[in-house]
Task: inverse folding
């Protein structure tokens, strides 16, 4: 056997250092990459979520809440994106609202990066790209692609079994880092429980009427392309679903929020506050298991030959053809259904109405592209650009 | 609070394993296989200590 002389040890150590740098550097850069959002004229205040729970202050779990107050008093709505940061359609829809919406009546609370720690997390083991870019009128705009759960760098260790608070249901250990399993949260809990607790405090203190949580799901998963709502929200959800189908020509079926599956926003927000919760799912072919390589292109256009073959065998829960499920359709659906839920609620409860304008709907997003609604951060006033 | 203590303890453990692995690496004169083993073992602890992954 050859001995391990100084030369060999140095050469081997150098090789490992090179591996560490080349492998670790992109992950570190991803964690520090800022996504820039330009505050539109409708944004009247930005407040950290820690305003509602100071324990979150100066932690990676804290996240900005953009407030758009109308000139006329009315109701309030909270819209959340990136609860799961590998489903960024919701974040894009919320960001478009921040950059463009004007509120005439009531107040909008917008959280584009609800699980901010998850947006700093990556999924290299499944070959997920670290970023995706959108074409805008002024060039490419780059976004981090995150993971479903908060980063273990920010919340660790996981328990063997996650026991939900306060319902005591036993859930998967991973879900303690999933902000759609930790509702209604707890003040002294782990960081993700504190995030949802702070959001519950926001809903209660600001008397928010509607909470809309924007998600995406696999085409092979039955709860996709839908609005999930509990009993108390079902009437508004039904009207919104029927209206977008008849007026805008896309399906968005209804799913009932299960009473015995705990920790989900559409269940706990309704049970632990007066707010009406809704969870929107857009189909994301990128998330399906039997696809080709998980490329940025697949994320953007949702086109995949394996899924096309499965669609022919009726294995998918959404219509699927050569055109795939492009990002623009997914973002457009989220915006239209969100606006329709708010409009239906406002019609039913005029004294608590929220009236919004200047937000594009499905057909406009599909025609012009998601990127065309983002403003150039370099052309905006510095104090109106938020780095997330 | 307990989770935070465990997390801090884990960083201390990671630092401890890095130190003793590097010490073994420096002292290893006989086996090239063991040198490679020590170096590969170092990677996850280094990634955690540097807060990369």
Result:
């Amino acid at each position: 056997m050859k001995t391990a002389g100084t030369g060999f040890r140095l050469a081997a150590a150098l090789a490992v250092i090179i591996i560490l740098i080349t492998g670790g550097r992109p992950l570190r850069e991803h964690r520090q990459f800022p996504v820039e959002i330009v505050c539109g004229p409708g944004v009247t205040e930005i407040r950290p979520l820690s305003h509602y729970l100071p324990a979150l202050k100066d932690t990676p779990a804290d996240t900005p809440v953009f407030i758009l107050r109308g000139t006329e008093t009315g109701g309030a709505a909270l819209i959340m994106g990136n609860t799961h940061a590998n489903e960024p359609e919701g974040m894009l829809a919320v960001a478009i609202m921040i950059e463009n919406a004007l509120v005439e009546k009531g107040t909008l609370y917008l959280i584009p990066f609800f699980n901010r720690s998850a947006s700093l997390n990556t999924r290299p083991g499944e070959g997920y790209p670290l970023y995706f870019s959108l074409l805008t009128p002024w060039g490419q705009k780059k976004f981090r692609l995150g993971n479903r759960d908060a980063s273990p760098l920010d919340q660790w260790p996981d328990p063997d079994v996650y026991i939900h608070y306060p319902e005591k249901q036993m859930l998967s250990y991973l879900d303690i880092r999933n902000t759609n399993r930790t509702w209604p949260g707890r003040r002294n809990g782990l960081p993700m429980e504190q995030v949802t607790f702070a959001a519950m405090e926001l809903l209660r203190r600001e008397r928010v009427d509607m909470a809309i949580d924007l998600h995406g799901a696999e085409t092979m998963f039955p709860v996709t392309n839908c609005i999930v709502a509990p009993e108390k929200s079902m009437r508004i959800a039904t009207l919104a679903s029927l209206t977008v189908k008849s007026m805008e020509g896309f399906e968005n079926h209804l799913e009932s929020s299960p009473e015995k599956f705990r920790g989900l926003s559409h269940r706990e927000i309704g049970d632990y506050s007066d707010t009406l919760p809704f969870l929107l799912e857009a189909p994301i072919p990128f998330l399906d298991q039997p696809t080709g390589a998980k490329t940025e292109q697949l994320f953007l256009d949702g086109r995949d030959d394996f899924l096309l073959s499965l669609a022919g065998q009726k294995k998918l829960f959404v219509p699927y053809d050569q055109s795939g499920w492009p990002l623009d359709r997914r973002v457009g659906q989220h915006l239209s259904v969100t606006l329709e839920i708010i409009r239906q609620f406002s019609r039913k409860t005029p004294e608590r109405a929220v009236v919004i304008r200047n937000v594009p709907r499905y057909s406009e997003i599909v025609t012009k592209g998601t990127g065309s609604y983002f403003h150039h951060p370099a052309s905006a006033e510095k104090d109106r650009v938020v780095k997330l | 609070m307990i989770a935070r203590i465990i997390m801090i303890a884990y960083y201390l453990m990671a630092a401890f394993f890095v130190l003793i692995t590097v010490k073994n690496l420096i002292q290893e004169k006989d086996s090239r296989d063991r040198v490679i083993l020590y170096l590969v073992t170092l990677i996850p602890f280094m990634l955690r200590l540097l807060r990369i992954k």
About this structure: Residues 117 and 150 of chain A are 5 Å apart (CA to CA). Chain A has a mean pLDDT of 96.
